[in-house]
């Protein structure tokens, strides 16, 4: 736990990235992730209640951007999924095609960006963190940026991840009401999928707490304290990603932006319920991990007490006895007891009395 | 305490339920409880100041829904009690008959739903947790959903529970003012019955604290710390269910929804007083359980101190004496003291002086 | 401290009372105190700037209520003091005579009611806790309900207590401006008398903290920790009664109820100052009691350190010496040192050197 | 630290004062300080940009009040400095002359009054605490009440203190802009002088923290913990006096009272900056004193560890060796080793091996 | 860590500076830094989209101020950089030339001033702290004051520092959009550069935490606790400088001052995001440093436990054995065992049994 193994999901040179950006003008589009040189692909899903069209766009051809421009103008709902953000120049061109503010384009590829929602005149821009567990059950936070404009939702993400798979299926299979609703509902559905996945991560934390609780109660080791601290840090980390979401959803509900319909706000109210619940859970996990540490400390103290009792009992019983036998090991010429025929047995008797007396004393003190 | 026995009141496969829902569209009606396959029954109570009619409806016949539709339209107050939520399709049909939003129907059977109040144009929807103690004195939280529409209150709950029994009696026996008032008063009375039952649970917590306090003061054991931690978790759990209620009642009071009359708001003000009082109690219980842990730790330290004192006194007295008798156990050819006729008794005298000196020393240090 | 003696001021069967109420309709007038069967007396004080009339009313005659009704209508200020609340039916009749809402009448005899202020169209209803110290210096909280209506103030209380005695004297002796002012000033003056008495209780807490501080510094015992915890609980209890008052007074100041004149609000501002000060004091007492516990723990640790040092010094000095004398107590045939004429004295020399060496070592470590 | 010496700056009989007031009407002017029977003097400073007049008024002559009444009416700025508050009747007469509300006059001599600002139609009344260090470097808090009315500022204080000396000099020597500005600027300047002096007290706290930090790191003693607790209490005490000031200054800035000009508000903004800074410092000092206690506890634990290590090493090395020499001190007739010519030296060899082995073991454990 | 070396970046006589100011009128321009007698230089950068002019002004000639006055009037954007603040009279003259309020001029050279933003009719004045790490990796906080007036931004700073170097390059090299925008964008860009540098400091804290975490886990020493406390103090210090920035930027965004264009507010929103993120990080670092201390304490306790176990095992095994050999070292005339031919070997057998028995006992207790 003390030494971290290099993890393919952890940015290896985050610092240098941050430094690279320092001193640059705001709005400069710099990819802040650690998956440089990855390829970028664009999937487009165009649908209305009756028809659905799925297409992949080649980011290296100008036709792609033209096609996107056309889609944006059409009355059907369009979901543009940009996967892989390391190709900064393409993202910048795409952003301009969609009419995004340079600051939004910058944030779309800034994988360090905190969760946020910015309203512009013609679109709403949001950044969130998708949380999931990797193969080694470690927490991974992936950056995702969402743009809601008229009839169009654009998703910027790093990996072709499965958080939105259920949603894609619902659109394709015409399950639920999504096909009959407009882009703002799609925006909500994406947000809802992200929030829903937070529960998976929370359940994992809950499980870890239960396991640690058992470890603390049954067999606390020195490593247990480390594990509790690691858990606390994980909760802090999750809270950092998840905490702002509630306020952001609330902002959307209170927003008077024309892109968010009153109907969708009912659904957003649901999403806010979930965010509130998640924040409450995290608060509870935080208190529980602090209780775990307390419990651990009290267990250590209890163990020390037990150790001390054994020592004290052993020493208190045998030290006086050893003194007595030492007395009769002295070599004085004149020691009357030594001459007594039963002296040796009297001494044993005396020691037995002391022994039993001390046992009773410790029994009364409930140390035995 | 460390190992939890399986409890018939605890959902055994909550995780799988949650996963089942993930990726589904919001508004999909999925029963989240753990009492699958239970039967659903519907009790209807229709009353005005003069007459009262009680009926049970068979959920499997379409006549039931038609009857409910008629009742809803009539000017008398109707209390529809849906008991057992695992029959999702019936609940969905009933919800549509009552004109509920799909999101409300979803929440009616979502037993994991946090306490909430949602206002819609034609009805008010609330979810609360009924808390009570089971036969083993363990805390149980049951989901209950309330719908207030014109002249009608619908209650969705899992068990034919007794929280509302007093209220049913008051209506049947025409006690109190309930018969002469409209549906919003019934809604308040249901809420009031739920909040009133929180006090039972709080009193149980209070009792546990008093017992633990005595245990900590009188005879703290290693298990005591576990019990304190369990108590803390129980308080956290109750708080989670109960805490939102105050704000929700306040929302109802501030609400301008036409279904809540000014008169009923006076009563809601009373309910809010109770919620505030409950939240304050929980806060106090929380602080008291933290104090208990502190007290426990200080008791452990005190005990350790006592153990150490016994060891130190025993060792400090007998170790020097043992050294002295060791000296005269040496076998040197030339040890003048050994030849002295009273040497042995002089040594006893010396040891007695040392013994008394040390006793005085420890007495002065207040260790004895 | 651990076992509580039965206290004549503590409700012996509070739980049963609470249960008795459960399931009853809100507004049902049930006396929640523990002084059942006590007698009820009603004292009336009617005054204006020039005249004053004091009367006792027999609650068992209908004339009493008629008389009260007349008083309420007269333009002079009337202070009605209802002492003893266990006669529920009289209180209910009186409440109806005064035109009180059933909820207010319920709260007037609900001695568990949290501090509150409710505004109604024709009167203002407040519940507060009078705090004082009983003969054994224990904290007692008495329920008091105040009603301010036009020209009349009604006080519902359990005992003919002395908190309002100063105020009665001021009215009778025409001291201060109270005789020349209307009922809202009397209402304020009653509230002010209650708040003023909180200081007495706070001073008692302060004194306890000072005594405990001295005990912790001078001679901490195992009982000291218990006392600190009891103090903490007392502060929590006082805070519970006192904390809401500030907000309630503020509510009165902000209120636009016609019964509160602008002039009286100036005085209420003063009362709020006092409430704020009391809350701040309680906050400080809370922090100080936590510091006391910290101090206590550090003192225990220091004592343990001292104990350990004595043990370590004794053991470290005599264990090696005992080993040396053990060596020359061995019975080998061939031990050259034993034959040396001065061997015995050489060993003493060696032991002296070791003894002094260890003393110097411990001195350098500042353990001596 | 544990025993407090009587301090000439500490009220010796505060309790009795408080009790004396209890039951009195609000607005009763009772001096709450502990400097009874002190003399009262009144210094008046009248100035405009060109002229300045300084006078001392004899409080025992009616002429004084007449003179003050004339000054108040004149267009020049007047600073009336009332020093010594124990003459309640004079303060009351003066207050009436100045047109003050009885509540303000009461607060002017109520030295226990918390910091406050009350706005009246024709004047603004403020109470603050001047903090300084007495000759023994102990914190002293003096009550000061300020009244701002048209062209006049009245200061009620207990001692002819030096907090305002710099301000007096600036007026007399025509330094700064104060001579050319009106009374509200003088009011601000007095407030500013009070706040400025808080920094002196804070610096003293900072110094104490640094000294304690060194003591904790270098040579923590049992007394050190007491000192840390005393520091914490001092910070709590200062915070109590200083904390409300920020909010009060803010209230003045937001006030629409005609006595505060827009220009003076710019200066008040500066005073609020200082109050904010002071509150932040106190917060930091609070956290630092808690850290100090933590550090102290960790140091005690470290010391205990060290003590235990010495004991364990000494005991673990010599106890086995003593056992071995004990073996060969037995008196069995048949003990072959004793007959061996080099048996004694073999035993020494064995003991040396054990000794070195244990040293290596402890070295490996890093206990040496 | 305990003794601070004199640091060239730390004000050596801050106290005297503060005292010097006490009693002075507000608005008195006194340099509060510790770089007295340093020279002052003024660099001017004038630019619009097409042209750029850089000049250094000699503060000792009146021409300089005249030139600045002309620049301020011209429509091009002017960045005036005042480096070195100890020449109070020049700063005062410059301030008057720029039309600044005396309070702003005072704050421009008051290096103790907390971060603030004051809006005046014709300019906006801000004070911030630039944080960086000096050559010894210690945190340094430098005062910087910014003035935004029409077409002009003035920067008051102590050192020709590199925080703004990137910005200067962007202007000179016409990178980014800065050249085409007006003064309010320059003001934002300066603020953004300051905030960007906070990340460097935070990364350093993060690194320290990671190193300390390893030290605590691997090899905690007494010094480690000191380092953790120093870290906590550093976090407190950074928080003090950085915390107000978020609120200040928010104030600018909400401001309706005509100098801040709607366009620039979009960028300020970005700066606020960063401030929020920084505050969250500091909060997390704070919790992590508290966890570190907890971990450290639990490690000490664990170590103590281990030490005690070694002692207890050694003592518990050898003390009884030593007693046994002591028994047979007694010199009684009549001790039958001594005469037995194999007595010696029987005793060894007995001791072996005890030895093995105790080993098993400790093994079962998991102490071995």
Automatic annotation (TrEMBL), chains A, B, C, D, E:
Gene: corA
Gene Ontology MF terms: cobalt ion binding; cobalt ion transmembrane transporter activity; magnesium ion binding; magnesium ion transmembrane transporter activity
Coiled coil spans: none
Alphabetized SUPFAM superfamilies for the sequence: CorA soluble domain-like, Magnesium transport protein CorA, transmembrane region
UniProt-annotated location(s): Cell membrane; Membrane
Function comment: Mediates influx of magnesium ions.
A Pfam family assignment: CorA
UniProt keyword annotation of Signal present: no
Protein's recorded name: Magnesium transport protein CorA
